[in-house]
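User: Please predict structures.

Assistant: First:
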Amino acid sequence: MKNVKKVGLQLILLIFLLLLNGCATVAPRLQESGLNSDFSLSHDTPFEVYVRTTLALIEKCRVDLNDMNKEKVMQANAPFELRPQETLFPKTKAGKYQKGVLLIHGLSDSPYLMQPIARHLQARGFLVRAILLPGHGTVPGDLLKVTYEAWIKAVAYGAATLRADAEQVYLGGFSTGGALSVLHALRDDDIKGLFLFAPALAVKDQRVALAGFLGALTDWIGPLRDDVDYVKYESFAANAAYQIYLLTEEVHAGLEARQKLNMPIFAALSEDDTTVDAARTLDVMRQYGTSKKNRIVLYTKDSKKPRGAIAGVVMQENSSLPGERILDFSHIAVTIPPDNPHYGVNGDYRSCLHYQAESEKRTLCLHSQDVWQGEITAENLKIGVVRRLSYNPLHGKMMEHLDRFLEEVSQRP
């Protein structure tokens, strides 16, 4: 009863705050373009045609393009393909690459966040393709009416076109992309393996289940942002929250019906994550993951905590790095290396959205070299100004774990 009352009070407060936001003038970026809420390409559409079509869509819909940034912004948000060096990784007699992987970004993100993983897998002989999920890469307003079924269609297209050019098909995704990868694998017995990075198999904030109701009252959750990050929406649509909830429910139903994930799985996640529930991912691996080749990289501050029996190997990495002024690893940090020019140590973007209403702290967060970095938790914020960690300090080591996983998978049972 106490939990019901607590959620009820939270809902009332949310409705009040969201109604206040609804009084603001709607900026062009917060309006739906009308061109990017569904996926309608047939499976026989060549991937290069899809890329060209999507680039044209991005150019038409974005409102922040100019002569200085146009090429950079469009290439960061567009779907892409990376082919392996054929002298090192020749095609089969059938004219296909031996291995292919479809990479899927997260909610409000873009394919940019998958580029570091993509380049690594390309160097390991993969034909790599990354898609842009409907509602993404254009304007935040395009998430107002998108559905998770449209995302599923995009993944099905990507997997089908990849299968035409690769003997073995893998799926990989970050956050929402991880959930979509699992869901497709539950429906497709030919998926060779999965690469999951902070997969959204459950969302930490249980209020997402109410987002469908809230969407009838307001379009946005929380304060409207400036949306200066050109590879990720900062403003967050209520409908987007509801669609990820529906997707996680679909994944749960699929797991309950299938009862197993037979393909080898590589997963990297942070136990400190405030966006997705890392414990749920571990539960899924424990209950449904059957391959002894599974490998999990778990970033944690409590390596002594019992994890239970999980098929494969669980590698625990310490997420508290005081020498680097890092408290723990955030949700958005996992796939990004420290030298990334946008989100890395010396990147041009710093994640300080949690200080939007506190100008002094926001200034320190954006410009000071002395602030701590980590996930945005109440505990962390008690120590002073904290920047949300946007890169993985142990990215190189994570790639070494990934290489060991690939070696295991390449060996016969």
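Second:
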Amino acid sequence: MFVVSKIVVFLLQPGVWLTMLLAGGTVLLWTRWRRAGRGVVTAVTLILATVAVFPLGLLMISPLEDRFPVVHELEGPVHGIIVLGGAVQQRVTRYRGQPALTDGAERMTETVALARRFPAARLVFTGGSGLLFDPDLKEVDTARLFFARMGIPLERIQFEAESRNTHENAMYTLRLAQPKPGERWVLVTSAMHMPRSVGVFRKAGLEPIPYPVDFQTYGSEQRGLGLNVLSGLAGVSAGLREWAALLAYRLLDRTDEIFPAPRGRTS
């Protein structure tokens, strides 16, 4: 299933199949089917222009990021903090010898802030290797180096190194941490990823306090026309991947809801 999911994620990238269509259409231009080739190339051009000009990706991502509100104050005790992997670059870290983070670095930096604010809370970093061809290169190795550089005692942190996806993050984390009934655990991950993450943790038996970070959208003023093919494709790819994952997780019974929401909110 893991290998299949990686293949599906690859094929869901608009840039992949648009490139394939463009290449196929270009080949057809040099054959007797050049009329069909012109049609394919024209269609790809129109799609790219649409993606570049209109904020389709932002419109897909915004409902995901708005599902759980930003947390400005945490009231009451915090017994544990869980941060999901996906914000480190294992290969760069290994090659350069210093912790390298992705665009989702807020997962790590906000966790440091929370750890300092709640010094008695237990910390769990969950992230093995989601790499298909280098499974021994673990995210936890980069995480250890990062947290040590930030001055967080490593003996305070539990590192879960076997998970390869969000479902396994939840299953293995709860097996490792064994939170007690009534404890309050904060879940830190990217805002776009939070609905699916909350869903799998609820299914696994924990009602976490969602702490979304790494926002990409900031309201209606961002939704004007533009002209950037690369960012447009990136946004559509990210949004399409996450919506598809939400549906897949529900079909695979990894969550009880297609689009998890804060408790008391069903729409």
